[in-house]
Amino acid sequence: MPPEVYRELARRGLTQRIPLHEGYIEMARAIQSAGAAVIFVEGWGGNGPYDLGTDPLHRLPADYKIAQGDHHYACPLLFEGWRVKADNIRSILRKYREAGIEVSAAWLDWEVEPLVWSRGRWEQAAACSRCRKLFPRRVLDSWKEYVNFIMALRADLFSAYVAAPILEIYPGCSVTDWEKVYSSPECPTPSCWGTWKFPPMSLGLFTAANPVAYGNDIYYREHWSTNWNYPLDQEHMDRLYTDVMLGQISAHMENALRLESEKQCVPWVCRYCPDVDDDKVPILSRSRYREILRHIWLRGADSMQIFNEPRPKHPEIAVEEVEDAVAVYDEMLAYREFLEDGRVMNTEVPEVTWNGAIWSGLKLGDRAVVRSFTQDSADAAFSLKPWPEAQEIRLVAPPTGRTWLLRREADRVTAEPVE
Questions:
Q1: Which of 47, 86, 121, 372 has its CA 20 to 30 A from that of 320?
Q2: Measured between alpha carbons, how far is 160 from 143 in angstroms, rounded to an integer?
Q3: Which of 84, 90, 104 is nearest to 22 (CA)?
Q4: From CA 187, how far away is CA 204, in angstroms rounded?
């Protein structure tokens, strides 16, 4: 694009992503010259790196029938293809470095094998003559054992063959991949759709986590309960979006706080992701999306990736996604020192039926910034104690939301609403 486009994007705190490919060096040079950050964002799926190896697919019995919806997967414990991909990453990044390009981040979206999204993956591995020789004892005996093993293996593979090669060439680069989050036995982190929990996980050599917060219509199919006695309308679907979209980042940050981790948090966000494309399911409202974005910032986000994929039924939303993210970013930059150095104050996630206050905040020394709102039609009062040695304070959460600046003086806490 013309240089002035990249300059304008940079002025608004945005940059255009580029794929991790040597063909984009001149584009990266133009982006860098305009004062914007060079960030790789690349999607990949299927058998991914395994396909780069020799004979990677499961060796299945001749009469084996692959389950509907599954494919012929690769043996997870074959690493030749991963080595090839790692060397490819090194080669590409050396060319960027030689061209004088400073790469700020590589935030990948490699939804590649090994994955645990279906039991068919375990069933193929259990039937594979090669996997039965390669896997440790008992791992193939049950779906649960297989899932826990694969999730740990996946984290190790990405750390060794993706994060490490990038950091070899660009040691200061921010590096993450799809849904890289902390999880623990005490606080299992939910999947981004909220349908299952991760086993214990770390970030390995990745320098950033990547929780996902999408306004996805699949939530209706997976979570809607007739026990709520709610009509399927905007107000009540917004409640479900809020519950799921705050789930993964909140649990991840709870674990990051337990570990006292200083690694970055760079979530994917979007208001509209129609995985089911069900017209009867209301799209997340723009006002609630903006509210959710405020809370994501105040729950530890360091940056954001906007998934503004063009949608045929609603093409206007691709632009609205950016407008909403930039508007909230501009608003939150008033509290930049909190975003950079503050400590997350709250990771609780409201249930769909909760009518009380929903709040998030960051604390920095004797000051704090708090955002509150309620899903009820009337204001909700709530109490919090930001500093153990100071008094409890009572605040109000209106339906339209409110930001508060708190200050501690000895054991007294004052709160000032921001208009």
A1: 372
A2: 26
A3: 90
A4: 18
Say how many C-beta atoms besides its own lie within 10 A of residue 20's C-beta. Answer: 20
> How far is the C-alpha of 280 from the C-alpha of 255, rounded, in Å?
36
User: For residue 384, what is the enclosing H or E element?
Assistant: strand 380-384
The token pair at 371 is 């955002």
Output the six-digit token pair for 411. Answer: 């054991």
Q: What is the DSSP string of 309-373?
A: ---TT-TTHHHHHHHHHHHHHHHHGGGHHHHHH-EE-------TT--SEEEEEEEETTEEEEEEE
Q: What pTM was estimated for this model as a whole?
A: 0.95
Task: Give which of 88, 134, 106, 84 is closest to 37, Cα–Cα.
Answer: 106
Is the backbone of residue 48 left (phi > 0), alpha (psi -120 to 50) or beta?
left
Model pLDDT, residue 419: 74
Give 320's pLDDT tier (boundaries 50, 70, 90). Answer: very high
Which residue in the block uniquely carries the two structure tokens 């039926």? 353
Q: Encoding tokens for residue 378?
A: 């009337």
pLDDT at residue number 395: 97
pLDDT value for 373: 98
Strand order through the sheet with 268-273: 212-216, 268-273, 305-306
No. of H helices and E strands in the chain? 13, 16
pLDDT on residue 413: 96
The contacts of residue 273 (CB under 8 Å, 6+ apart) are 214, 215, 216, 217, 307, 309
156 neighbors 79 (Cβ within 8 angstroms): no
- CA atoms of 167 and 205, how far apart (whole Å): 9
**Cβ atoms of residues 60 and 124 within 8 Å:** yes
Determine which helix (DSSP H) or strand (DSSP E) holds 396, and give its type and residue range: strand 393-397
